[in-house]
Amino acid sequence: MSHLQGEARARFVRQMFGRIASRYDLLNRIMTLGRDQGWRREAVRRLELPANGIVLDLGAGTGDLAFEALRQRPESLVVAADFTPEMIAVGRRRPGGDRIRWIIADALQLPFGDGVFDGVVSGFLLRNVGDVQRALTEQYRVLRPPRRGRDGGRIVSLETTPPKRGLLRPLINFHFHQVIPRLGAWISGDPEAYRYLPSTTEGFVTAEALLARMAAVGFKAAGFVRRMFGTVAIHWAQRVGRATPAREVPQR
């Protein structure tokens, strides 16, 4: 599965998430010991949404970040976009789902005009896209640019990141390669999906490299924090002007 590229990769990812949509949230809670909910609260806080803001939860899945945005800013207009119809269907049925605008969309080609959103937030999206730089460029494009004394819109990405070497590395590897696949197979009935998901963490860029990729697109005022023994990172950055062509950036 790791060798797939382009449309073949997109099709594999879409079908995989479609198969596990009904159990996805439950497994997230179990695999993170419930910590993912706290990370989502922090991610939305770091958006620093203005009053009556417009926010995009990209790669929304069943809408955890979208619902959190409404909890923190009830007056906001929240759009949840994902390219897996089964995930969107689960999200629509959740209590309060009618307060969110649900859209099936590809993160590499967003169906929105320039400068629409005050904030774009994503959770565990970027490791699954075929072109991280293009996804970041699209998010930059749809963010509101600075105007009339107001700062530009903000991006926040909640994402897994390869853990640093250390005493906990063997325990983390055991969790990724033994615990998660077994839990996934038991609860979702789809062992392939929960072999794929840990592999995307190890194959993804480091937190430092992702920060460099954001800068290459044109984001400023960027930073990140690590969580969960260094296996999760929350990045944030701000739009300051037009999107710039992507430069060559670190791969790891």
Provide structural commentary.
It is a single chain. This protein has 252 residues and is of the alpha/beta class. It is built from nine helices and seven strands, in the order H-H-H-E-H-E-H-E-E-H-E-H-H-H-E-E. Helix 5 links the parallel strand 2 and strand 3. It is globular, with a radius of gyration of 17 Å.
* Percent in helix: 40-55%
Low-confidence stretches: 244-252
| Strand line-up across the major sheet | 3-2-1-4-5-7-6
Report the major sheet: 7 strands, mixed
Q: What global shape is seen? A: globular
Number of helices: 9
How many E strands? 7
Short description:
The chain is an alpha/beta fold.
Could you outline the blueprint of secondary structure elements for this entry?
Blueprint: H1 6-20, H2 24-31, H3 35-45, E1 54-58, H4 64-72, E2 77-82, H5 85-93, E3 101-104, E4 119-123, H6 132-142, E5 154-160, H7 169-188, H8 193-203, H9 207-217, E6 220-227, E7 232-238
Parallel strand pairs: 1-2, 1-4, 2-3, 4-5
Antiparallel strand pairs: 5-7, 6-7
Task: Tag the structure with descriptive keywords.
252 residues, disordered C terminus, seven-stranded mixed β-sheet, globular, alpha/beta
